[in-house]
Design goal:
Mean pLDDT: 84
Low-confidence stretches: 1-32, 271-277
Radius of gyration: 27 Å
Strand content: 35-45%
Helix content: 10-25%
Length: 485
């Protein structure tokens, strides 16, 4: 599996203009590389970031390129016949630069500038004239704890919802260093638990809680760079199961490479200085350079508890990071940092085409995203404030003329909608506190050729098993456009 992934990634690199190769970068780990770790040697893994390069500290990351090959496979079992199978793959190559680094000892990357060089399906059957999401886009990337990242466009074009979701669900590599052991570790030592923050970064899912995942140092090997210099690669294996909001119970199997310069030979001044502290500990100053991971989730194909047929989703990742090529101009860090506004942060949703529904686009804040279980239709859009738990839910329905005068009149009648909602709330055994229901001031809407009716209500569960839930609040708007719009 590892050799196959190395070959696949080499193909990803070859497809990028300019490639990612540098003479001082280690090649993909070969099967003949030698184990160098002494059983008694401890390794303290250190990964550091800076906004500006420092020639005296070449191991500190300030400008790098990342290539990712992601493959999603689906298998749906059937009562008779072979299961249905699907597969889709994407390759991404981007350049990234830390834009703001914390002042503490950890030096967390608080913001980054990222430019997308390549984003293509594999195989790529698109035409040169087809729109390519993400390609050419430069963004300000702000990771957030237990939430989707905030992404601001630094390019004079609107962010689409598809672009945001692709970017938000790709790994933010600076946060992966949380996978490294906090204490110096030997090869073969007991596994260490993965903290929640690192699990979220690895799985690209704010719902990940960690602790059910563990990591173990399994090997330290030597590889030769193209110029003949030796570098050491620590291999860390990650495994376990975790529950994710979007896929449910998910099995995780991953392996990452941490590349660093080997310690100086014994007897040199640097070695003696280090030996004076602890002869058995090596300060491994370097970076995560490669990750191979597979996620597998199984779920029933229906809500029936007796259902035995399953749907299996597998996601495979091959990721590699290298320093930006020599001579490459560093990405510009805007000063002052950008602030979110409608132009740089709102997302444009383009519903799927339908000959019966007028074509329209829909813009919304990126804090509100479509729920994973509700498909977007040409006439309906649903948005949730999803993390950490849904707090606000919005739905928008574009009602089309039916050609039946009575039905069309009902759809434009606010009293019809109010009575329908009251009947439904009564059926659901909800306690209803009605608020105002009225037409909003015409002076605000007549210039836009619209009339807007608003209804407000507060709902409380009355059933014993759910009445402890907090009260929910409903705002309903009926927006009437001109007859010919």
């Amino acid at each position: 599996m590892r050799e196959r992934n190395a070959v696949v990634f080499a193909m990803v690199l070859a497809a990028a203009q300019g490639g990612l190769s540098r003479a001082d970068d280690p090649p993909p780990r070969a099967s003949g590389s030698a184990t160098v770790a002494d059983p008694g040697t401890r390794f303290k893994f250190i990964e550091r970031y800076a906004t500006e390069p420092d020639k005296t500290k070449p191991e500190v990351l300030s400008h790098y390129r990342v290539a990712v090959l992601e493959t999603i496979k689906g298998t749906t079992e059937k009562a008779q016949g072979a299961p249905d199978r699907s597969e889709i793959a994407f390759r991404t190559i981007y350049t990234e630069r830390p834009a703001r680094v914390g002042s503490g000892a950890a030096g967390d990357v608080l913001d980054a500038v990222r430019h997308y060089d390549t984003f293509r399906p594999v195989p790529d059957r698109s035409r040169p004239v087809d729109a390519r999401p993400l390609e050419g886009l430069t963004v300000w990337y702000h990771p957030r704890i237990s939430d989707e990242p905030q992404i601001l466009s630094l390019t004079e074009r609107e962010l689409t919802e598809k672009e945001y979701l692709f970017a938000a669900r790709q790994m933010f590599l600076p946060d992966l260093r949380g996978l490294l052991p906090s204490l110096a570790s030997r090869v073969g030592d007991d596994p260490w638990p993965i903290p929640a923050s690192a699990a979220r970064a690895l799985l690209c899912d704010p719902s990940a809680r960690g602790r059910s995942l563990s990591a173990k140092l399994v090997d330290v090997r030597e590889v030769k760079a193209s110029d003949g210099r030796a570098q050491w690669v620590a291999v860390i294996a990650i495994s376990g199961r975790t529950a994710l909001a979007m896929t449910g119970d998910t099995a995780v199997s991953a392996e990452l490479d941490f590349t660093f310069t080997p310690p100086p030979p014994a007897g040199t001044g640097a070695a003696a200085k280090q030996a004076g502290v602890d002869k058995s500990t090596v300060d491994a100053r370097g970076s995560i350079t490669e990750l191979r991971m597979a996620l597998s989730a199984t779920s029933p194909i229906s809500a029936d508890p007796k259902e035995r047929l399953r749907h299996i989703t597998t996601r495979e990742y091959v990721l590699q990071r290298r320093p930006a090529p020599d001579g490459a101009a560093p990405l510009r860090i805007p000063s002052p940092p950008p602030t979110p506004n409608e132009a740089n942060s709102w997302l444009t949703l383009v519903p799927p085409p339908d000959p019966k529904v007028p074509r329209f686009t829909f813009r919304h804040p990126q804090e509100l995203l479509p729920p994973p279980s509700v498909p977007v239709t040409p006439s309906e859009v649903a948005l949730w404030d999803r993390w950490p738990d849904p707090r606000d839910e919005l739905s928008f329905t574009l009602t089309q003329r039916t050609g039946k005068p009575e039905v069309d009149r009902q759809f434009r009648d606010p009293e019809f909608h109010r009575k329908q909602m009251l009947l439904q709330w009564e059926k659901d055994r909800l306690e209803v506190v009605q608020g105002p229901h009225e037409w909003l001031p015409a002076t605000d809407w007549t210039p836009h050729n619209m009339k807007v009716y608003r209804l407000q209500a507060a709902l409380k569960e009355t059933r014993k098993e759910t009445r402890s839930l907090p009260r929910s609040y409903i705002d309903f708007y009926l927006v009437l456009f001109g007859r010919d719009e």
